[in-house]
Automatic annotation (TrEMBL):
Belongs to the GTP-binding SRP family. FtsY subfamily. GO terms for cellular component: cytoplasm; plasma membrane. This is Signal recognition particle receptor FtsY. It comes from Paeniglutamicibacter gangotriensis Lz1y. It catalyses: GTP + H2O = GDP + phosphate + H(+). Part of the signal recognition particle protein translocation system, which is composed of SRP and FtsY. GO terms for biological process: SRP-dependent cotranslational protein targeting to membrane. Residues 274-287 form the SRP54-type proteins GTP-binding domain. GTP binds at residues 108-115, 191-195, 253-256. GO terms for molecular function: GTP binding; GTPase activity; signal recognition particle binding. It is an enzyme of class 3 (hydrolase). Involved in targeting and insertion of nascent membrane proteins into the cytoplasmic membrane. Acts as a receptor for the complex formed by the signal recognition particle (SRP) and the ribosome-nascent chain (RNC). It is a peripheral membrane protein. Its EC number is 3.6.5.4.
Amino acid sequence: LARLRARLAKSNNALGKGLLALLSQDKIDEDVWDEIEETLLLADLGTEPTLELVDALRERVKIEGSRDPKQVHDMLREELIKLVDPTMDRNFIPTRHADRPNVIMVVGVNGVGKTTTIGKLARVLVAEDKDVILGAADTFRAAAAEQLATWGDRVGVPTVKSDIDGADPASVAFEAVTAGIDQEVDIVMIDTAGRLQNKVGLMDELGKIKRVIEKKATVDEVLLVLDATTGQNGLNQAKVFSEVVNVTGIVLTKLDGTAKGGIVVAIQRQLGVPVKLIGLGEGPDDLAPFDAEAFVDALLD
Ligand code: GDP
């Protein structure tokens, strides 16, 4: 948690300090409210949530008659936490099976951090004494399977991959799940290809992977990985993927490199799916469970 704060504070300071300075002025007039609005929009909170937040704050400042910066800061914190929604279930494997592996499919556009996230997540699971197998169903780029296997070696878990370039992704996924069942592991994580250029192709491929896996096991979780630095573009990607597969959780990567943490709110609104994990760097330990209150505190620090 301390690391989360340090990391986010470094990149998101503008939001907290800027807002606090604005709110602590003697007179919070229309100009100040406009600036507050602008600051929140710049943090990618999204238009609708920003307007709601500012309205709620204005209302509270009016009713509670407080101009004390500390109190206004607390109000802002409360309203932001409401927007991020602490009540969402952020368990990244909601159902655990005693008798067969949990299967997690990881989807997202190339370069957002899927493979890295799988590596980091495998490390977390291994540390919890879980047996894990990785499946390299991104068979389109040979380098992708290699990269996944390298992460596997690094954290000490086996990777099922094909030696044939352009092999059928669904059959690699099937083999990984079969190996997972045979070896009685706890979790099988499947990396997939993310070529968004062709929505029909993507839909066919991800749909087929899921169908083929489900001959053997249930897909318990479909994690959509999004790059926090891509703003609106990331939102559009999220929409396409959620139309193609039933996304059950979001992993927001590269939050260490952006002042746009507000994107969490925008994405959750758009998909109705919780952000479950956040990526805070390229290293094996740079993955954290998402916690609404801690996140808002880091934003406002
Ligand atoms: P994939 O194509 O979706 O599998 O993406 P990769 O896992 O290969 O990641 C693409 C690049 O983003 C790599 O250089 C990663 O090291 C980097 N990356 C992934 N997650 C993070 C993160 O949370 N923070 C930062 N700064 N870089 C990340």
